[in-house]
Amino acid sequence: MRRLFEILGMAHKANILVSGQTRIKNELRRGKRLLVMLTEDHSRNVMSAIAGYHERGRCKVVVMKGVTRNSIANQLGLGRTQILAIPEQNGLAEKIE
To answer: How many helices (H) does the chain have, and how many strands (E)?
Structure first.
């Protein structure tokens, strides 16, 4: 899990980490292909908000085991978000998958 937070921290510093349901949906609507990462304690509403994009192949979705809203807030300083994303074609996405 430490390695995951290191990768997410690098993505955040590189300004390619997208956080929050609204921002991620906006990026998907613009046609970007994303690796969407959900916290272990995500809500059904968050999953259903991106399900259509996932079904159409516009994004990949992974649930980060052992990662909660609180751990994201503590480790990355992003608030208690339950959904993050980075561009699929980025090398960091491959390391997370």
So the answer is: 5, 4
